[in-house]
Write a structure and sequence with these properties.
ten-stranded antiparallel sheet, 26% strand
Length: 331
């Protein structure tokens, strides 16, 4: 059984990438770092070494007029698409800058000693498995995860999880206590320790360069990898306001990111920051934030095309995140 949230290999790989990020202004070589000098968005890390050979089959030549007409149509189509992407990206950048400004002025809920910050994730996630015939099965499963962060750093964190129908038999409800939220042995629940979070830059450009400089070929593309690593930090609900603000600005620098108004799994309306990955059959991943506070209130994953047994615009992941100060945690 595999759920989107509980994949220890994935969590550990993400944590390893994040921990190994440079701590100075986001550069692989801090001495050479220039915050506003980025590779051209159309540049490629690997140029094709393929060249025509004498053995290549001859191609029929089309009349020059047809070629010119086809080229003009292709260029026109590309220009329209490129203009639309630029417009969407510009709009998203403005929305994210506004969200960052609201976030930086918002005071995060903070528990006092003896209290806990309870971050509740109410989720409907895709669960994949293999049936008796060896065929892959897919279904949706509702879970609730409560993470209790103590106001006293010396105390243990507590996780209470209702696995729903996907629970490890015979335990559907579990309670785990652990230092710093290391509930499943793969590192902190927030992916980074408090010290590692404090070491990250807060500037959006520097954060983008942090993630971009550490790409090692993961995900379907470099842009998706940057988007996933940033949103995986945000989705925990445990990232402080000043870092959230910088991460929103960093998201605005990723090609293809746009925004829309959406509701979380519990029906609360927010701003969805999303990106569709062409190399993943157009699957769109979104993080949903409260525009008035900058807090993350959920996420969505949508199939924009019919593929892999899913319909167009079918939601295959949907969560709601809520925050409450409480006086006790499960025993």
């Amino acid at each position: 059984m595999s759920t989107f949230q509980f994949q220890t290999d994935r969590r550990e790989a993400l944590r390893k990438q994040l921990v190994e990020l440079p701590t100075l202004a986001g550069a692989e070589d801090p001495a050479r770092y220039r915050p506003h000098r980025l590779p051209h968005p159309l540049s490629r890390s690997r140029e094709s070494s393929t060249a025509p050979t004498d053995h290549a089959p001859a191609r029929a030549r089309l009349p020059r007029r047809i070629l010119l007409t086809a080229a003009a149509a292709a260029i026109g189509s590309m220009a329209v698409g490129h203009t639309a992407v630029i417009a969407q990206s510009a709009h998203a950048a403005g929305v994210l800058r506004d969200a960052a400004e609201r976030t930086i002025s918002f005071v995060d809920p903070k528990p006092k000693p003896g209290q806990y910050l309870m971050v509740r994730t109410h989720a409907n996630w895709l669960v994949s498995g293999i049936d008796a015939a060896g065929n892959q099965t897919n279904s949706m499963n509702v879970q609730t995860i409560d993470v209790y962060v103590p106001g006293n750093p010396a105390e243990e964190w507590v996780l209470r999880r209702d696995w729903g129908d996907a629970g490890p038999v015979p335990m559907d409800m579990e309670v785990i206590k652990s230092r710093d939220g290391n509930f499943y042995g793969g590192g902190p629940w927030s992916l980074l320790s408090a010290e590692e979070i404090a070491a990250l830059p807060r500037d959006g450009q520097a954060l983008y360069d942090h993630f971009n400089s550490r790409y090692t070929g993961g995900s379907a593309s470099r842009d998706e990898d940057n988007f996933v690593r940033i949103t995986d930090l945000l989705r925990t609900g445990l990232i402080p306001a000043d870092l959230r603000a910088g991460l929103y600005k960093a998201l605005a620098l990723i090609p293809g990111v746009n925004t829309s108004e959406q509701t979380n799994f519990d029906g609360k309306t927010g701003i969805a920051i999303g990106r569709a990955e062409a190399l993943r059959a157009g699957q769109r991943a979104e993080i949903i934030i409260d525009p008035s506070t900058g807090l993350v209130i959920g996420e969505r994953t949508i199939m924009t095309y019919a593929a892999f047994g899913f319909g167009a615009n079918e939601i295959v992941g949907h969560t709601a995140v809520d925050y409450t100060i409480v006086n006790s945690a499960p025993k």
